[in-house]
Design a protein that fits this description.
This protein is mostly helical. The protein has one domain. It contains seven helices and three strands; from the N terminus they run H-H-H-E-H-H-E-E-H-H. A hairpin with a 3-residue loop joins strand 2 and strand 3. The protein is globular.
């Protein structure tokens, strides 16, 4: 199971009344390693307010498979990723089961973002250690 969803939230979802903030709180509590990584890159991005700073990234492999799974679940799910992007006001990009970047929203039309999400950069970021991630 990806998230520890309380029964009250399931009831709300069945009625069509799901609150984005509540959903983000469930993500935070259910996927603490992913939350730590994503909130960390967002914090780094907000510290450097220079206009030329388009993004920050986290490129440290997770400490274990549980952490890796959390990061994969958070960023592979459109719903979770979208909620996190709305919550933090960033665009998230992801490579190699651990390389996470937070981009300023206006940077997604720029060269740095296009390069980060390109097949070329994905190939260049491969290594034997990351084959089974």
């Amino acid at each position: 199971m990806s998230l520890d969803v309380p029964p009250t939230m399931i009831d709300s979802a069945e009625r069509g009344d799901l609150d984005d903030a509540e959903f983000v709180a469930v993500v935070r509590d259910s996927l603490p390693y992913a939350w730590q990584v994503i909130s960390g890159v967002v914090a780094e991005l907000s510290v450097d307010s220079a206009e030329y700073t388009e993004y920050t990234e986290h490129a440290v492999p997770p400490p274990d498979e549980t952490a890796r799974g959390q990061l994969l679940r958070a960023l592979a799910s459109d719903a979770i990723r979208g909620a996190l992007q709305r919550h933090f006001g960033v665009a998230l990009a992801f490579q190699n089961c651990h390389r996470v970047a937070a981009f300023r929203p206006d940077a997604v039309s720029g060269e740095t973002y296009r390069r980060f999400v390109s097949p070329r950069d994905q190939v260049l970021n491969q290594s034997p250690q990351l084959r089974d991630c």
